[in-house]
């Protein structure tokens, strides 16, 4: 199993490293703008960095869940590519938001779209596996057979 999921694991490690990077940016911003913990209020420049990191952290569990479900039940390759695009979108989101509130929008839309694709892949993969295991119905085989007959 571990060798079969190595690409998903690599994307996961990159995601964890990205989260660590975002957290470090908050620490640097606290020092730069003299905002001591536990305060989360400070100059707008600090608050944007803080919110960008918090927003990315809020979505990370959803991302990891659908990345793995999609990879295990649908396609590891497609899921991993989507995962890399998502991480790129989140990186751009973080830096865009750090510079201006408006700068977060385009990357936010990109990462949200990728999440929905992963949710779709996960749902379809789980549905097909459920039908195959519990209903003894291989819908992909049936679909492929129907297409080749046409």
Report the total helices: 5
- Morphology call: elongated
Estimated radius of gyration: 20 Å
User: Based on helices, strands and strand pairing, what is the structural class?
Assistant: mainly alpha
Order of helices and strands: HHHHH
Q: In whole angstroms, how far apart are the ends?
A: 37 Å
Which stretches are low in confidence, meaning pLDDT under 50 for 5 or more residues running? Answer: none
Q: Beta fraction of the residues?
A: under 5%
The percent range for helix content is: over 70%
Largest sheet: none
What is the average of the pLDDT values? Answer: 94
In short:
This protein has 150 residues and is mainly α. It has helices at residues 6-33, 44-73, 76-99, 105-134, 139-149. Helices cover 82% and strands 0% of the residues.
Keywords for this structure?
150 residues, mainly alpha, single chain, 82% helix
Descriptive notes:
The chain is mainly alpha-helical. The chain is about 80% helix and about 0% strand. Helix 1 runs parallel beside helix 3 and helix 2 packs antiparallel against helix 3. The protein is elongated.
List the helices and strands and how they pair.
Elements: H1 6-33, H2 44-73, H3 76-99, H4 105-134, H5 139-149
Helix pairs in contact: 1-2, 1-3, 2-3, 2-4, 3-4
